[in-house]
Amino acid sequence: MKWDTIAAIATAMSNSGIGIVRVSGENAVEIVDKIFKSAKKNKKLSEVDTHTIHYGHIYDGDEMIDEVMVVLMKGPNSYTREDSVEIDCHGGILVVQRVLETVIKNGARCAEPGEFTKRAFLNGRIDLSQAEAVIDVINSKNNFALKNSLNQLKGSVQSKIKNIRERLIYHIAFIESALDDPEHISLDGYSDELTVVVDEVMQELEQLLERADDGKILKEGIKTVIVGKPNVGKSSLLNHLVGEDRAIVTNIAGTTRDIIEENINLRGVSLNIIDTAGIRDTDDVVEKIGVEKSIQYANDADLIIYVVDSSTKLDENDEQIIEMLKGRKAVIILNKTDLDMVTTEDMLIKKTENFVIPVSVKENKGIDLLEKTIQNMFIKGTVELNDEVYITNIRQKSLISNAFESLKLVKNSIMDDMPEDFYSIDLMDAYESLGQVIGEAMEDDLVNQIFSKFCMGK
């Protein structure tokens, strides 16, 4: 496909060492030739080999803008499969902006967010699952997320989905052929053969859906809330996990009144962790608002870390918190075990039926067990860079779920001994749902919506 030529700043707008202006399209080389003067006189980009680097200067008319290195990549061997030029200039905000303005002044237009990757998709260099992996690589918060996004970028989702679709289309075509030519193609006993295939595919899709929860955790992090009565060590625990004094710690109960949020990397898994106000009955108007916020955040959390002071007795405030834990993923931290214990591990296990970890934040005891416990609670097995495919995208998960449901209908039709054309209808629905995962037969509006979430210059 051929479009107009686009340009954008591909690096962060800051006073860094290097800035990159990216140009792509049919006239990319011609446009940059107008403004680039090579250190070797009369050297034109249109006359040199692809995938080469050239030193010189960018000019706006007679005015020199900057000293640059220019990278030439002719299509189809470029990111967009179009002729592309990247101008590496100095990284000052003003100079990068001037270089971009000069490129646009000479015939390019400013690219929309994600338009380079959109062109890579539309030109067939990558499929939609790979395109979505690009933004996931950029936004990765931890090592697991980065590795999984890179796997998807290499085509792990594409390969899996294409393999399943090939099996489905074979059977769709077989049924249609048999219905059109029953004299030469028999469907006797075919339902048993199809059942085996559908069962296999459903099992594969079910595994993808089961791992999707892991994928969501890998990508977005665990929404974690620390709760407990005032002065039990919640803020001290947060500070320890973050590695700095993020929250104020005093001996005065009720110090934390507002919500403190931090993102931490715990054994390769991200925790979006929130330290809340201590939960207790209070007449203080400000503290009461903090308590209400604490309860609200706890209700929305993926994980609740309930901190208990082992040197004090449980009271009605603890009973209120314990009631909140029912049916939730929670870990109970029995803190201050360096002091004389009044509340014990056994007492908490009987009351809550949750996992209890004795710790002393002050003496850094038990924190490793807390980290390992959280990892085991949310990650089924060990998530490593291997052949497993982890779906991290809600859109993809929804489409795979739709395909799974369509295949359930196929099985129902087989069990009810329905005519074979009923099989092909639901098989085709599953085939098309999976096709949308990798971007086949996508509506333009949806494609535009997906790429609008990208950053500028990508």
Q: Any overview of this molecule?
A:
The protein has 458 residues and is α/β, with parallel strands linked by helices. It is built from 15 helices and 13 strands. Strands 3-4-5-6-2-1-7 form a seven-stranded mixed beta sheet. Strand 4 and strand 5 form a beta hairpin. Helix 6 packs antiparallel against helix 14. The longest helix is centred in the middle third of the chain and has 31 residues. About 3% of the residues have low confidence.
Overall pLDDT: 83
- Shape field: flat
**Can you count the helices?**
15
- SSE order in H/E notation? EEHEEEEHEHHHHHEHEEHEHEHEHHHH
% residues in beta strands: 15-25%
Strand order of the largest sheet: 3-4-5-6-2-1-7
Unreliable segments of 5+ consecutive residues = 245-257
Distance between the termini: 19 Å
> Cα-atom Rg, whole angstroms?
29 Å
Record the SSE blueprint.
Elements: E1 6-9, E2 16-24, H1 28-35, E3 36-38, E4 52-60, E5 63-73, E6 84-91, H2 93-105, E7 109-110, H3 115-122, H4 128-139, H5 143-154, H6 156-180, H7 190-220, E8 222-228, H8 234-242, E9 260-266, E10 269-275, H9 285-300, E11 303-309, H10 316-324, E12 330-335, H11 345-352, E13 355-358, H12 367-378, H13 394-415, H14 420-437, H15 444-451
Parallel strand pairs: 1-7, 8-10, 8-11, 11-12, 12-13
Antiparallel strand pairs: 1-2, 2-6, 3-4, 4-5, 5-6, 9-10
Helix pairs in contact: 4-5, 6-7, 6-14, 7-13, 13-14
